[in-house]
Amino acid sequence: MDGMKMAKVSFSGVIKTICTEWVPEAKIGDYVLSHAGTAISIVDPEEARETLSLLDEMR
Amino acid sequence: MKYIDEYRNPELVHKLADEIAATVTRKWHIMEICGGQTHAIMKYNLIELLPEEITLIHGPGCPVCVTPVEKIDRALAIAYSDKTILTSFGDMMRVPGSESDLLKARSEGCDIRMVYSPLDAVDIATANPHMSVIFFAIGFETTAPANALALLKATRLNISNFFLLASPVLVPPAIHTILSAKDTNIDGLLAPGHVCAVTGSEDYIRISEQFRIPVAITGFEPVDILKGILATVRMLENGINELTNCYRRSVRKNGNIHALKTMYEVFEICDMRWRGIGLIRGSGLSIKEKYSAFDAEKKFDFSTTYRHDPGICIAGAVLSGRLRPSDCPAFARACTPENPLGAPMVSSEGACAAYYKYSS
Amino acid sequence: MIMEISCPTPHNRYDKIILAHGSGGRLSDRLIHDIIIKELDKAYIDSSHDGAILEIPGKLAFTTDSFVVSPLFFPGGDIGQLAVNGTVNDLVSCGATPLYLSLSLILEEGLLINELAQVISSMAAAATRAGIKIVTGDTKVVEKGKADKIFINTTGIGSVAGNRSISPYRCMAGDKIIITGTIADHGISILSTREGLSFESPVTSDCAPMNEIAELIFSATDDIHVLRDPTRGGIASALNEISHTSAKEIIIDEASLPFKEQVKGACEIMGMDPLYLANEGKLLVFLPDKHADSVLKAIKSHPLGREAAIIGRVSNGEPGVKIKTLVGSTRIVDMISGEQLPRIC
Questions:
Q1: What phi-psi label fits residue B255: left (phi over 0), alpha (psi between -120 and 50 degrees) or beta?
Q2: Of chain B's two ends, which shows fewer C-beta atoms within 10 Å, N or C?
Q3: Domain count of chain B?
């Protein structure tokens, strides 16, 4: 749209259209960190999983 | 809400808090840099969960708070001009300039519109070809690329009625200034996670080395913040002065090169006066000559001169972490959210507003 | 030859409100009878008189309210519905059975007559649903720019049975607090229609009358202390008012607050605190602990009360509202100053 890559994202069922120019590798189903109408990073599910499981291991 | 709810899990939060308590052996002062982190700390009252030995100092991470007074005065001058539509993030609307603020100007009939994204401001320009549409472009490195993208969108659409009133700022120079101050009392830093998602960690590695201070890149949910604090405390207790990334799910070492490319396509580094703190060299972004046709500062005539902030406001000391909001003689007396004397009481990211709202 | 001179100036030549519609003359009369009274239909008791004379059983509950919402039409409702339901709910909060409404309209020159008709028709439907009648009214027109399309003022009259006494002064230590459904729906619905903050899947307002739910509550027990509809300023403002009026401490539990997922998401995106966003079809109920479960069950039996939950309690501490956060810590919930503005980072 207007020469920029855009995508629909869902925040718990609220749909917004944001610019995805800066996350060219993003695929449908990915989670992105977005700010001011732009996606600035793809959330890495592996890292997220690792973080939470490390915490789980803490006594 | 995936990737949000899990990081608000009370069990995890308590585990982290217990681990922090078990690790500390002496007092430490840790500064969190981003206003979003300050907000989360106050909203979830994480201070209640931390051991007494940890003191959290709130840094200058509120771009709204540090926007220079003269930029607000210029935004107002634009708003009062003929055939203009001023667009802005919601947070800027109530911040006082020398004499007024955007909300008051709007109530007097100025066409001032709140937008969520600078890209929306370009759409307003397209829809109103006979008006000059100006976007009040503030923010840190998280937002500056979006501001730049808006300008580039305007060039692609070939429109000539869109302008940026640019006032974006860079975080690392401000941290340098704060850590270089003589009376600084900061042992460790929580670096702003979303800024780093864009810029990467290079600048913060340098800060860690130069000032011999542990730095933890930290996110914004309670689990993230406590993780960052735990990592910092562990480094402090072991005399390690390094950078560690505690927000790996969103932050990569090199940041987002596409966003940075966009940002530096449009902007170049300049000196900027931070409200309450003063001039910080190389801490701002200004529009390159190449794009001067979109620069509101070139298009509009400003005869405003820099006016000094009200003397009683200690925003500078609060933003640098030297004093707490509650140390200010005006806090909750002459200065309240209804009648703010300075920016940190107005912005919902501001330390004073957070203190006022969330503590007794 | 006799010529009949007539200047009918039919109102339907006008598709917009003009100043003459408020001047008390023929055009006014036509507006009132052919649009307003016609659309109100069975919801209106026509006394053809300056005032209504009514018989009210028991104690009289009396409330007034004004409605200036913009935009007039929003997902899930409009200003007409809001006006009726808002007034009904104020009466319900007094423990009253709502009976009659007055309707006072201030119309801006240039308002589309179609829009006015729609709003009035909506009021009629809302009144019928709530079981109340509109019995008297007034219409004025002001110049363009002096009002925002329509301002509506209502007064509501209801009757309070026997020795029922519902008031914030009755808030007592040990009381439990129930909310009858999800919070912040209306506030987000309104925000979603404003320029620059739009969503592609609409979040609808919860605008609804609470009289049936109140009846279910009283059928479970008469021992209710406070009822409040948490409108502007959200549950935070309503709870703060009750706390300070009764000089009691209120503690709410964040984990038990019911939300629609979309509303949570919308608040996250915009950096809005749902505690301060308006609700237009909810009630806060303060009652003794021993009745909380049975009343909750009664509320949940109604379609408007399915998401009801016990959200807090009253204690004898410092007046003010505290919240036990999701992570187990406690913090203060203050009165808001001014309007909430969305955050950027």
A1: left
A2: C
A3: 2
CA distance C86 to A23: 47
ipTM: 0.91
CATH architecture of C15-160: 2-Layer Sandwich (3.30)
Closest partner residue to B143 (CB to CB) among C328, C342, C345 is: C345
Distance from CA of C200 to the nearest CA of A (A): 5
Averaged pLDDT, B149-158: 96
**Contact across the interface for C327 and B360, Cβ inside 8 Å:** no
A11: which chain C residues are within 8 Å (Cβ-Cβ)? 265-266, 268-269
A22 DSSP assignment = T
Cα angle B294-B295-B301, degrees, rounded to a multiple of 5? 125
Q: What is the mean pLDDT of residues B70-96?
A: 92
Nearest-CA neighbor of B65 among B275, B259, B226, B260? Answer: B275
Q: Taking CB atoms and an 8 Å cutoff, what residues of chain A touch B122?
A: 2
CATH number at residue B147: 3.40.50.11740
CATH code of the region C168-333: 3.90.650.10
> Model-level pTM?
0.88
- Does residue B150 sit in the same domain as residue B54? yes
Q: How is chain C split into domains, by residue range?
A: 15-160, 168-333
Alpha-carbon distances of B313 from B319, B337, B344, B352, C21, rounded to whole Å: 11, 13, 10, 11, 54
